[in-house]
């Protein structure tokens, strides 16, 4: 076995002593191996061997930004890793080569896109913090990180990515599917958070399932923003909720006769409380 192959194997199993010996004997940390063009750093990053990663970076710092034959950096591989230890490697790679957080491989995938499926939410959070713009980057299939998280039913990542790029909630992929459609029926819990933050068209409102009782808690924010949107929201509520809403609105109208008008936000909160408290 050649030294380069031995170094790859030592990196794979996390054998720091062997890595030191091989580097001292002349093995090159910047030498690619195999059909995919893996560097020892790529392998060590994927398996989460932080100690080996540090040794390899000391030997060849430039490898932090080097890619394999598919355009993937060590950060891509760390983001793909399955073990809890990969979080430390992700953090280290972001310190050494922060620009790789926005690196795109041959499939159009960023490290965040790679991590968004069923990987650690902490890895997703770390990558998102390092490169917020990556949340809105789309690949050739018109998938962003949120599409990946939704297709894997990764609720925590969907929520995080929705906060970072709410406009992608309705972004259609090449098959005309949106992240919320992929995530359905779990999407209901996210709808209220989405509509409270993001102005929506009538068409987008009509894409929500009905009834969708969870939307009630977004009523104050929506009413303050747009009376038309508030009407569309009410149209997605359950019939019982709409009946309570009508009764409460009539009661408010009677109470307010001869009084200054209530602010929209306060009216919205009162109406929402009547829905949520029932």
TrEMBL record:
The keyword Nucleotide-binding does not apply. Transmembrane segments: none annotated. ANK repeats lie at residues 36-68. The keyword Transit peptide does not apply. Pfam families: Ank_2. Keywords: ANK repeat. InterPro entries: Ankyrin_rpt, Ankyrin_rpt-contain_sf. This is Uncharacterized protein.
